[in-house]
Amino acid sequence: MPQISPSEDIRSVTDLKRNTRDILDHLHATGRPVIVTVNGRADSVLLDVRVYEKHLQALNLRKLIAPAEKDVAAGRTRSARTFLKEFKRAKRVPR
Q1: Are 20 and 44 in contact (CB under 8 A)?
Q2: Choices 2.60.40.420, 3.40.50.720, 3.40.1620.10, 3.30.1230.20: CATH for 6-47
Q3: pLDDT tens digits for 53-67?
Q4: Taking Cα atoms as reference points, which of 40, 2, 51, 48 lies closest to residue 23?
Q5: pTM for this one?
Q6: Which of 17, 58, 78, 94 is the most exposed place for a label (fewest CB within 10 A)?
Q7: How buried is residue 72: exposed, middle or buried, by Cβ count under 10 Å (0-12/13-18/19+)?
Q8: Are the C-beta atoms of 50 and 30 separated by less than 8 Å?
């Protein structure tokens, strides 16, 4: 994701209400998130849906990988050759 530009990507909720289409066009064109402020404080973040989907896919992949990383950290590993032998035996895969 491109780096946020504070002068372009931080907008007030009032500005969002008045210039919604322009802000969304900018968000889609740059791929950068827009930070929406309320009373001068960050409140929400708007993301292009494609960027959001990529983040969601990465998060889901991370959730799938996390248990394997814990096994590696705990030393619960075996060689690929050993795994393949056990897998073939368990699934009755012909050699």
Answers
A1: no
A2: 3.40.1620.10
A3: 999 999 999 999 999
A4: 48
A5: 0.66
A6: 94
A7: exposed
A8: no
E strand map for the chain: 10-12, 34-38, 41-46
The residue length of the chain stands at 95
- Judge whether 9 and 17 are in contact, CB under 8 Å: no
Residue 9 is encoded by which pair of tokens?
Answer: 């990507």
Domain boundaries, the chain: 6-47, 50-91
**Residue 67 burial class via C-beta count within 10 angstroms: exposed 0-12, middle 13-18, buried 19 and up:** exposed
**Dihedral-angle region of residue 79 (phi above 0 means left; psi in -120 to 50 means alpha; beta otherwise):** beta
